[in-house]
Design goal:
This protein is of the alpha/beta class. The protein has a six-stranded mixed β-sheet with strand order 2-1-3-4-5-6. Strand 5 and strand 6 form a beta hairpin. The chain starts with a helix and ends in a 5-residue tail after the last strand.
Length: 153
């Protein structure tokens, strides 16, 4: 495995998720090293492009890098139950989060992704996932705007 990884990274999935230690992306998505380019921050925040570019924040740099330099085909925003970044931001640093639930926040961050020129140019598939920590279930944002258990054919 490490020999293959030594030849560079070629992930097809960009994952934007919370920095919460209870969220283990590779475990939740059954992914091996090198399969996912992961961006982690409190509240799985994606700043809107105009503000991100001005601030030149790390999310802006990482999203732009991934979409412009890696073979990304899918972007996933993964939020979770009991997110302290969404529920109780006392610092004001998370002004780009949605008012409401973690599920509302996932939808808002997906909206913000659509403001990035690199995203518009590449036009990857986008998915919202919600991790219920208490049950261990991973729910998928469906076409109706609701989160539900994934349906496998």
């Amino acid at each position: 495995m490490f020999e293959k990884l030594s030849h560079g990274q070629h992930p097809e999935i960009l994952l934007i998720t919370c920095a919460d230690s209870r969220v283990a992306p590779n475990l939740l998505l059954d992914a091996k090293a090198g399969e996912i380019f992961i961006i982690r921050n409190p509240g799985n925040i994606v700043m809107p492009y105009d503000e991100a570019q001005e601030a030149y924040g790390s999310e802006f740099i990482m999203i732009s890098f991934a979409l412009e330099n890696l073979p990304i085909k899918e972007v996933v925003v993964l939020g979770h139950e009991d997110c302290s970044g969404i529920a109780g931001d006392k610092t004001g640093h998370l002004k780009w989060r949605a008012e409401g639930s973690s599920q509302d926040n996932i939808k808002k961050q997906i909206e913000h992704l659509h403001t990035y020129p690199a995203f518009k140019k590449k036009n990857p598939a986008v998915y919202g996932l919600y991790f219920e920590i208490s049950s261990g279930e991973l729910l998928v944002l469906d076409d109706t705007g609701s989160f539900s258990k994934p349906k496998f054919d």
